[in-house]
Each structure stands twice: as C-alpha cells, then as structure tokens.
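in:
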C-alpha cells in the first residue's frame, strides 16, 4: 500500500465568504457614490432679530386617572372647567 503525504483533495467553492466580500464591496461603492453626488441645496439668507424676547409658556401636568377624574397641580377639575382654565392662560390657539 502506497502512502501519500499530500493527498489531493478536490477543491470546492465556499459561498459564504464570497457573499461577505460582495456585500462589503457593495457598501463600499454605495458610500463612495454618495460622497460624489453634490448637494443641491439652496443658499438662503434667513432674517435675524436684533432683539430677542423669550415668551414664557405655561407648563401643566395633566393627570387622568382610571376612574376618569382629571388632576392638574393637585386640584380636581371637570373637563369643562379644565378647558376654561387652559384657554384663559396664555395663547388659546396654542393650548
């Protein structure tokens, strides 16, 4: 019987490393092409204010419990009273 130190094996193609390399190349080429596309933005000169005036906004935490009662700052309110309170304080268009 003859002994071989280097047995000849049939070569096979491993598909998973090839898929990894192809995905890496795809991501690489996508990143390069995104950097090559120029920005088509518009140059705008937005107006600026010479005087800054901060308007205070009222902050409310409204808690609605399981039984349907509404609590604001520890006081119980009905929905109609709550609506009047919120509309009277600040800008009613934004509340």
């Amino acid at each position: 019987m003859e002994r071989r130190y280097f047995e000849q094996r049939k070569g096979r193609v491993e598909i998973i490393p090839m898929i990894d390399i192809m995905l890496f190349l795809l991501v690489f080429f996508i990143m390069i092409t995104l950097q090559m596309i120029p920005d088509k933005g518009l140059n705008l000169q937005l107006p600026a204010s010479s005087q800054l005036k901060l308007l205070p906004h009222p902050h409310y935490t409204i808690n609605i419990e399981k039984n349907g009662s509404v609590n604001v700052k520890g006081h119980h309110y009905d929905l109609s009273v709550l609506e009047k309170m919120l509309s009277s304080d600040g800008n009613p268009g934004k509340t």
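note: The first helix runs from residue 15 to 36.
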